[in-house]
Beta-glucosidase 4
Amino acid sequence: DGALKEVRRSDFPEGFVFGVATSAYQVEGARREGGKGDSIWDVFCEKKENIMDRSNGEIAVDQYHRYKEDVELMAKLGFGAYRFSISWPRIFPDGLGTKISAEGVAYYNNLIDSLLEKGIQPYATLYHWDLPYNLHNSMGGWLSEKIVEYFALYAEACFANFGDRVKHWITINEPLQTAVNGYGVGIFAPGVREDTSIEPYLAAHHQLLAHAAAYAVYKEKFKATQGGDVGLVLDCEWAEAFSDKEEDKIATERRLDFQLGWYLDPIFYGDYPAVMRQRLGDKLPKLSEKDKELLSNAIDFVGLNHYTSRFISHVQKPRGIHFYQVQEMERIAKWNNGEVIGDKAASEWLYIVPWGIRRTLNYIATRYRNPKIYVTENGMDEEDSEISTLSEALNDIKRVGYFKGYIAAVAQAIRDGADVRGYFAWSFLDNFEWAQGYTKRFGLVYVDYKNGLTRHPKASALWFSRFLKGEDDEDNNNTEINKG
Ligand code: GBH
């Protein structure tokens, strides 16, 4: 891709948004406060062996009580937007959409107002994996078609209560993860292990229909008065063919269809990708004419969560989960000359491959009629156990390199023609990293778990801050934010 000059904010169009992201279960804590009902993650974590360090999000990083301090820090650093998620069981404790919790609504009103006071735009995700436990327990959660209606009621309540101030809505975060890891492999809540059966595809189907239902509610009742946008967030690891062999190239296209096409083809092209139908047969639910109509162009922007890349090789009986076996492919982290694709972060799955985000963005632009795109998550982690002192923790130079590389690649994708409108770093703070508990740290801001959950900006936060202010990178002695 040629030598890159240092990326600058002025490489981005006017109005381009830079923000930070989190999700409710990962940061809020306050499990039993404000009338909140349990979510499937509250219950999943009760089975200690589900989480690497046997932890949970009961307290997490306590954002429920510290949102003001967090918002102030975001503002000091210069971020223009905050992507957070609303906890469904904080709004409707039993999920049924009849008894709204005034305290739950008040919490998000306060958060949103604090953000706007500081000039930070709220980007709200309605569903980032914390389904009201009652909807799982009483009807099978995402396996039941009834959930579509309950999600629409919940979405409507959020639009009605917060939509005067929230202009960017994300319905669902990474439906693929809920489908494959929640209802197939079982490593995420609700822990259903039905990898070889219809469950993952049914859970995906209902998430798509729930997205479409919420999109329709917004369009019919709120769009004209509130004027916001509603999008869906998908996770996509870039897939690059392992060799020039035709079968590797086809397996690579297949891999992308099984990640993005699964959700975007029904919206942009009216049905699931043909290759999924061929390989899954009746395991893949059918979209009725009514479903197709509701889904048709039901998206104002595509949200992309992107972290890493792999080479894809066609393998008839691949190792790994059933979801990969039906795709007859293996994900490989080495070039065909044996060299690794990129440096590794802490998580086993995360290699640092900046060029992958440019290709993913260009792929979405070309394949799906150049939609508005937001990069809704991008970042890397370090291993908690490898950090021995606070000053070591704050000196996250590898993450600085990660952001410089990936953000420069986003700027290139924009020059290539992709309509990217914003970028959110994952994550604002170290937090509860799902099945990996607190063993991995994705934050720009360090959270001292042993010392009152105090917040300490890492070097990457300070780099970001200078980048946002358009300051020279050489000028890196600005430690203002760490004083006071
Ligand atoms: C995001 O998912 C999530 O939206 C966010 O909440 C999370 O904190 C962040 O990633 C960092 O992990 O499939 O066995 O490799 C990104 C997609 C899905 C990638 C789960 C890692 C790990 C389990 N991630 N996957 S596995």
